[in-house]
Amino acid sequence: MSSDASLPSADLPLGFQWGAVKAGIKVSGKLDLAVALAPGGANAAAMFTRNRVVAAPIIVGRKHLAATGGRVSAILVNSGNANCMTGEAGIEACIQTCVAAAEEFHCIFDEVFPSSTGIIGVPFPAEKIVAALPSTSDKIGPSAAHAELFASAILTTDTRMKVARAIVGIDATHPDYAGMEFRIFGVAKGAGMIHPQLAAAMPPHATMLVYLFTDLDATPAELEPLLALAAEGSFNSISIDGDTSTNDTVLLLASGASGVKLDATGSGRIGEAFANALGLVCNSLAHQIVDDGEGVTHLVNLHITGAATETDARRVAKAIAHSPLNKTAWSSGDPNWGRLLAAAGYSGVDFDPNTVTVWIGPHLVLANGLRVPEFDEAATHQTMLEREYTIRLDLGVGTAETKFLTCDLTAEYVAINADYSS
Amino acid sequence: MSSDASLPSADLPLGFQWGAVKAGIKVSGKLDLAVALAPGGANAAAMFTRNRVVAAPIIVGRKHLAATGGRVSAILVNSGNANCMTGEAGIEACIQTCVAAAEEFHCIFDEVFPSSTGIIGVPFPAEKIVAALPSTSDKIGPSAAHAELFASAILTTDTRMKVARAIVGIDATHPDYAGMEFRIFGVAKGAGMIHPQLAAAMPPHATMLVYLFTDLDATPAELEPLLALAAEGSFNSISIDGDTSTNDTVLLLASGASGVKLDATGSGRIGEAFANALGLVCNSLAHQIVDDGEGVTHLVNLHITGAATETDARRVAKAIAHSPLNKTAWSSGDPNWGRLLAAAGYSGVDFDPNTVTVWIGPHLVLANGLRVPEFDEAATHQTMLEREYTIRLDLGVGTAETKFLTCDLTAEYVAINADYSS
């Protein structure tokens, strides 16, 4: 596992190529058209935002996955324009780019998976993408440098690219694949409008885009539950501003080029190893997304324990994670546990304030609803000056728990998002 | 109706006295202990926050209202300490102040209604209140100056006091009260942590405190539904930061000193006039609370129409009102309707983006899910530079609607709330 910017090419999954060019969609003139190819095709599983307002590429992408039964040969991602709230014309424009990509990359139209990120409601410049496609040919390849082109081109307000990878070696006792390896490579973009609420086969407009590539051999039906599980503990357990984007997309492609086949049920040794590695890659990308959140100066790991149900624990975590009063307190390292309790109190979850225990980092703050005599405010403040720390809140009700990663709210976030027509 | 700082004393309801002193709870040394008396007693109705975490005075106040069947002779409000998350000791401390107030003001212990606002989780200095009570005697009276003392002492981060009043004259054709008058006077505090979710007879810790005084003659049972109705359209229809406080309280007292009696059912002419006037007073106070919100530079009236149900309309309004991306866009007057649609889209309400229409002030922005050709961005930006304007979003589903008042999110809000241990 690593998220280094410089990737050894040997660590990348086989059966994929990446690349990017400048299509002139971004006013900045930066890379804005990214392509990933699976020349032999790949099996796919996807998750989309639960937002009721859906960008055109999501509508088209879902249709394509349905039509092919989960096969993808090319991913076409543009940044700079989300192609959302663009009506029928937006869908037509998206289809136009898929047609051109199918022609350029010699694949079936339905096997092109489109994604867009950027501003909402601005007519989609399909002609720029169509015009730029031929120039991609000498920018596409299987090397780390190519993968980095892809990772760079999908960014918008991100300050750095987000990649993670895993290599799984199969031990010598395995009857079929002893000594063989398979790989996972993940690429993400995010920054603001991050509170993904992903659901399998549901509509999106994605500001969080995640592409996961593996050379494991697995069917779409096998990939789907494994992706859902990995996303639940990672992308669905983070929040920057509580705003769920209209384009969030997570796409997992399996080329099969490693020669290693997922166990039939996905529950055997290969399945377990893949699930673990996929979870690590997703967690790393989710962490990188929050870490690069707009104006973020502190990352807070909320650990809610002692809940009656996991659903309750998540409701408390989200209420705290979305509370401006808590997020601003974190920006100055203020151990304001009253605001933690107030947010838990309006989460809708039933608990007795007199059984609540709170720790900030290693410091016990509150026990049985009262500030403990040994509470060391200065030391707690010191902990909260660190870039990342954990707040644990035990409700004292049951044994269910959850973890949720979030961040502070700073004047810098306001400045970035108040920027006229950002 | 007026919210002038200088109140003609003649406009205040009869049967009440107000006052305030410095008890030394606020570090600033400002007025921090407010008292309102109903020497002949008053009938009461109250609403409290839905927060699961409840301040001590809420627990005690609810118990007192239950014990007396809704009678109040004295309101005792301190600012500077919320007496919340203070355990049994906090409840004992609150009771101690009620005992002292009952003695000082010669009333029944149960008829003292306590309120606290300020920091959470700090031991409650009952002794300061008990010590200060005797000094209130020459500060209490029925004049406008006395009422202003009360209105000032309950403030915390507010920059100005919030008062509103109404005088209802009964026309010459009324069989019993021709030519008579009754009065309503309302006082509020608020600023941050404002997203009241008030419910009758439910627990609180209140950052929004509202006291309504009328000299109408009405029973607690008559007052309750009228207060609920007025609160729903005012205090329950505003949001500054989406944080629901642990102490929100709205208390309505009726002294009966006007000699005008509410119609038995509350639905006759007097009831109607009272309901209207109470609504106006509550709306004015709610508006003043948002207008004085922490760091607020723009007030936005969200008018959601065309919804299937009022509940749907309110869900959309709240999703937009709590969206940091929308709130920051408003701070710079950015007509970013994409963010409006994105928030509506994740509200959980079912609608078709292609039937949505959006107006910002008088400007049509979006029709049938598409930006209209005549959209005038510069003029819309100009409208959004005004202190207050309306955004109307029609879902195109049904005929239900709602209005919701909210505000922008500014760097100043972050600065105020990031201030260490504010």
UniProtKB/TrEMBL annotation, chains A, B:
GO terms for molecular function: L-glutamate N-acetyltransferase activity; L-glutamate N-acetyltransferase activity, acting on acetyl-L-ornithine as donor. The active site is at T207 (nucleophile). The keyword Transferase applies. One of its GO terms (biological process) is L-arginine biosynthetic process. Its EC number is 2.3.1.35, 2.3.1.1. Substrate binds at T156, K189, T207, E294, N417, S422. InterPro entries: Arg_biosynth_ArgJ, ArgJ-like_dom_sf, ArgJ_beta_C. Pfam families: ArgJ. It catalyses: L-glutamate + acetyl-CoA = N-acetyl-L-glutamate + CoA + H(+); N(2)-acetyl-L-ornithine + L-glutamate = N-acetyl-L-glutamate + L-ornithine. Pathway: Amino-acid biosynthesis; L-arginine biosynthesis; L-ornithine and N-acetyl-L-glutamate from L-glutamate and N(2)-acetyl-L-ornithine (cyclic): step 1/1; Amino-acid biosynthesis; L-arginine biosynthesis; N(2)-acetyl-L-ornithine from L-glutamate: step 1/4. Gene3D superfamilies: ArgJ beta chain, C-terminal domain (3.10.20.340), L-amino peptidase D-ALA esterase/amidase (3.60.70.12). The record marks T117, G118 as: Involved in the stabilization of negative charge on the oxyanion by the formation of the oxyanion hole. One of its GO terms (cellular component) is cytoplasm. It is an enzyme of class 2 (transferase). The record marks A206, T207 as: Cleavage. It is found in: Cytoplasm. Keywords: Acyltransferase, Amino-acid biosynthesis, Arginine biosynthesis, Autocatalytic cleavage, Cytoplasm, Multifunctional enzyme, Transferase. Heterotetramer of two alpha and two beta chains. Catalyzes two activities which are involved in the cyclic version of arginine biosynthesis: the synthesis of N-acetylglutamate from glutamate and acetyl-CoA as the acetyl donor, and of ornithine by transacetylation between N(2)-acetylornithine and glutamate. Belongs to the ArgJ family. HAMAP family: ArgJ. This is Arginine biosynthesis bifunctional protein ArgJ. It comes from Granulicella aggregans.
